[in-house]
Structures are given as C-alpha cells and as structure tokens.
Amino acid sequence: MNDMNWRGIDDFEGCTVSNTDAGAGLGDQTAEARRDCSPEEAISVAEGLFWSYIRDLKQHEAALEARERGAVDPAELKEATRSAKAVREAVHLLLAERNRVDKLRKDIAGGVGAGQLDLDSARDEIGRRLACLRRAKGG
After folding, report:
1. Paired strand residues for 5
2. Are 86 and 60 contacting, i.e. CB atoms less than 8 angstroms apart?
3. Which of 10, 33, 65, 109 is the most buried (most CB within 10 A)?
4. In angstroms, what CA-CA distances link 80 with 38, 70, 92, 102?
C-alpha cells in the first residue's frame, strides 16, 4: 500500500522511505533504502501517501459493497470482516498522520499568527468536517 515509516513528528530523521514492494512490511527497510527528509519533504511525502491511502480505502469500500450485494460467496465473510477491520485501522492511522502533518506545518510556519484566531482556517476546517459527515451519511 505504501512504503513510509514515521517514528515521530519531531524526529525528521525518522521519516524514512523504502523502495520495497507493497507486500513487504515497514520494518523490512535496508540502510541504503533510507534517507533523511527535510520538514518540507516530509509533508510532501506524507500528503502523497495520504491520498494514496484514500484511493486504497475507496477500493476496499467498493469490494465491501460488492460483498454486501451478494456478488461474492458468503463463505468469504471472514475475509470481508478482516478487510473491514483493515479499513477501520487505516482510517485511524490516516487521521493520526493528518494531525501530525498539520502540527509539522505549524512548526514550519514558526508560530505565525500565534495567539490569534485564524477564522478562515477554522471555517475551512469546519467545512471539511461537515463534508466528511455528509459523505459518511451518504448524502
């Protein structure tokens, strides 16, 4: 699915990228496959991975919907349950990583506007959350 491993938001050297195949685990990285990332690179890589995860989640969702319509043998229910659990865990990971990226962006900005409310940013965040709720509701 992806090949990035984060050890910590404040550990920029912890951002490592591996050229391993998608089936390999994150811990299977070799020393020459790792490289240090600047904060800007880390944000760029994380953002790309975020959208990659979104595409993967949509594929999982389509597969689960096909199972719900009976397009797949009911004997595969165990696999569908496992897939649903993987999607749920991926969503949790996505939200955690999004928060880390937002914090990293704020750290890079260096406290610009510290102590003041950013109403435009708040309005955008509220709109984003409402859109997520609408999508989850199906409308």
Report:
1. 16
2. yes
3. 33
4. 39, 12, 18, 33
